Automatic annotation (TrEMBL):
Keywords: Membrane, Transmembrane, Transmembrane helix. The chain crosses the membrane at residues 12-33, 53-75, 87-106, 126-150. InterPro entries: SOI/HabA-like, StyOxIsoStyC. It comes from the Bacteria. This is Isomerase.
Length: 157
């Protein structure tokens, strides 16, 4: 397994983390109704999405970034070949970005990007589709990735 694959995975994890930090700023604005640019004075800012959705985008993004970085660091221990490591790396990085896209789509879609059609939260739109489709695909792929990782880990003695 090449160290360049690990480095790319860590780089993607870092970028996902930066997007999550951006969601943290959105969370702060959502909680305060603006930003304190001058101490003691909140400058009002209207922001899209609910506070709960900003929490999910912030924390979920951070957890996805950590997941990608941790698995990148664990791959050599599992002694994957180059092809296997690239496959698992793709599944992890893809999941990190798909989930990030999903969290942001949930902020912008009245149905929280949970369904392709309307649901009890609201109507669907093209943003819900863009957020949900990759998230569903990578939900399946991440399960497969962790079955592969678990099998590989327990095969080593």
């Amino acid at each position: 397994m090449s160290s360049s694959l690990q480095a790319r995975m860590i780089g993607h994890g870092a970028l996902i983390m930066l997007v999550a930090f951006g969601a943290g700023v959105g969370l702060l604005i959502s909680l305060l109704g603006g930003l304190e640019l001058i101490p003691g004075s909140i400058t009002p800012i209207d922001i899209f999405g609910t506070t709960d959705a900003w929490v999910r985008a912030h924390l979920g993004g951070m957890l996805n970034a950590i997941l990608v970085i941790v698995i990148a660091l664990a791959l050599p221990v599992l002694d994957f070949g180059e092809r296997g490591a690239r496959t698992v790396g793709f599944m992890l990085v893809g999941t990190g970005w798909a989930n990030t896209l999903f969290y942001w789509a949930a902020l912008l879609s009245s149905n929280r990007a949970l369904t392709f059609g309307a649901n009890r939260h609201g109507d669907s739109n093209w943003i819900a589709w863009i957020g949900l489709a990759p998230a569903l695909l990578f939900t399946v792929l991440i399960i497969i990735a962790f079955v592969i990782i678990a099998r590989r880990a327990f095969a080593r003695r």
